[in-house]
Design goal:
The structure is a single chain. By secondary structure, this protein is mainly β. The strands form 8 sheets. Strands 7, 8, 11, 12, 13, 25, 26, 27 and 28 form a 9-stranded antiparallel beta sheet that branches. The two termini are 20 Å apart.
Length: 455
């Protein structure tokens, strides 16, 4: 009878532990990234009242006689199945579609989490809601288009140096449209005007006004000249410390077909170079870019491509437009860009989106993968730490795309708690607890009957 009492107590304790786990699961049904747990029982020590015996020549063998002493908790398993997605629209909210974990750091110690509800702090660091630093890889300083995958470090997508994108000098413009040879404006000193905006290597904008005039001796030849180059204050820099020249300034057309032939009478030459240089020592040489270590990449002027022009009738009027950038859409130049948005790719690469059209690589979010994720130890705050059972983190992390998994931007992972399962387990646990309490009640009754024998 005493054994049954203690068996009942053991059963009560085990079922109470299971109820505690179920209660925690239900309490966290709406906790983002929460992973539900389940309890498995085991039987405990047995009291052997008679050992097993083997067969002899005259008697048969007997089995052991053992009395169990109750139950206990064998293990509490954590289910790392994915929860449902919840769309947030926050560019820093991420969900891992796979078994990997985000790597975060607090006090110099790395932790792991499935909750990708991130934000930025006043220093531009990518952090969790509790202030842990999100870890990943930095951009290679020798090649800003590549990631340097070494030891993980804190990501700073909105650091001061990432708030702006550098300007780019305009290196190409092109003319398009039609020159009508009968347009009387072509024979005047003002000619036919066309204007294009350009940027210097500091990102300042200018309006370049060009004019086209017809060669009086040959109606198939047209001259291009620079009328003015005005800055944002409408000041003509050609009157304020700069001079500008065109290497070749004559456009030639085929008289019979009206198609473009070449520049300065040279067939097949499609462009000329506009060179702007300072004449005042106090002015900067901002219309050249000699920063490249390779002299072949130096920009010493702006290429003006005229190959898209034609010489058709055009109803007697010219229709010419000068466009910033080459016919291949390169070399348009850019102003200084301001960070307006952040795009995080499925492989965790973070790109800054700037209002000058630049997309700049800012880093990559690394992930950790464990052989036995159920072996991780929960430390609260949706964080886990490594144990011997889970395997060790190497300090480098992995590219999530290497495993075929991905990240989704603008969504977070919800709890994977299944309420129908939890309530079913709650009923089973409640009945098990009641049955074990009945063991104690009946055992007490038997002891009472034994004591009453003396009466």
């Amino acid at each position: 009878m005493m054994r049954s009492l203690y068996s009942g107590v053991a059963g009560l304790k085990a079922h109470q532990t299971k109820m505690d786990v179920i209660g925690n699961n239900i309490a966290n049904v709406n906790t983002v990234g929460f992973k539900s747990s389940s309890v498995l029982f085991k039987d405990v020590l047995y009291q052997t009242t008679q050992s097993a015996t083997g067969a002899t020549a005259t008697t048969g063998g007997t089995n052991a006689k053992q009395i169990g002493l109750g139950t206990g908790v064998a293990t509490i398993n954590v289910s790392h199945t994915s929860g449902s997605q919840q769309s947030t629209g926050n560019p820093y909210d991420l969900m891992i579609n796979g078994s990997e974990f985000f790597i975060v750091s607090r006090g110099g110690i790395n932790y792991f989490t499935k909750v990708g509800a991130f934000e930025t702090d006043d220093a531009g660091n990518l952090v969790t809601g509790n202030g842990e630093l999100v870890m990943g890889w930095q951009v290679d300083p020798d090649d800003p288009t590549r990631i340097r995958r070494d030891t993980v470090s804190a990501l700073r997508p909105e650091a001061v140096e990432n708030q702006t994108a550098p300007p780019e000098m305009t290196s190409k413009v092109h003319m398009t449209g039609n020159i009508a040879s009968t347009d009387p404006a072509l024979l005047t000193t003002d000619g036919v005007s066309t204007t294009v905006s350009i940027y210097d290597n500091l990102g300042y904008a200018y309006n370049v006004k060009l004019k086209i005039t017809q060669n009086p001796a040959d109606s198939s030849l047209y001259n291009i000249s620079i009328d003015s180059i005005k800055d944002a204050n409408n000041v003509d820099i050609l009157q304020n410390g700069y001079t500008a020249t065109l290497d070749d300034y004559t456009i030639k057309f085929d008289k019979d077909s009206g198609k473009f032939v070449g520049m300065s009478g040279i067939d097949g030459v499609n462009s000329t170079k506009l060179t702007i240089t300072p004449t005042d020592a106090t002015k900067g040489n901002v219309f050249q870019d000699l920063s490249s270590a390779n002299a072949a990449d130096w920009i010493t002027g702006i290429d003006l491509d005229c190959s898209a022009l034609t010489m058709y009738s055009g109803q007697g009027e010219c229709d010419v437009e000068t466009v910033r950038g080459g016919t291949d859409t390169t070399g348009a130049g850019r102003k200084v860009g301001t960070l307006t948005d952040v795009s995080i790719q499925t492989d965790g690469k973070i790109y800054g989106v700037y209002d000058n059209g630049v997309n700049k690589l800012l880093g990559q979010i690394a992930v950790a993968n464990f052989v036995n994720p159920a072996g991780l130890e929960a430390v609260g705050g949706n964080l886990y730490q490594e144990t011997q059972a889970s395997g060790e983190f190497d300090g480098i992390g992995e590219d999530i795309s290497n495993t075929g998994d991905s990240m989704t931007q603008g969504v977070i992972e919800m709890s994977n708690v299944d309420l129908s399962t939890e309530f079913t387990e709650m009923i089973v646990t409640q009945r098990g607890f009641q049955a074990n309490s009945r063991i104690i009640t009946v055992s007490d009754t038997l002891i009472e009957e034994l004591v009453n024998l003396k009466r």
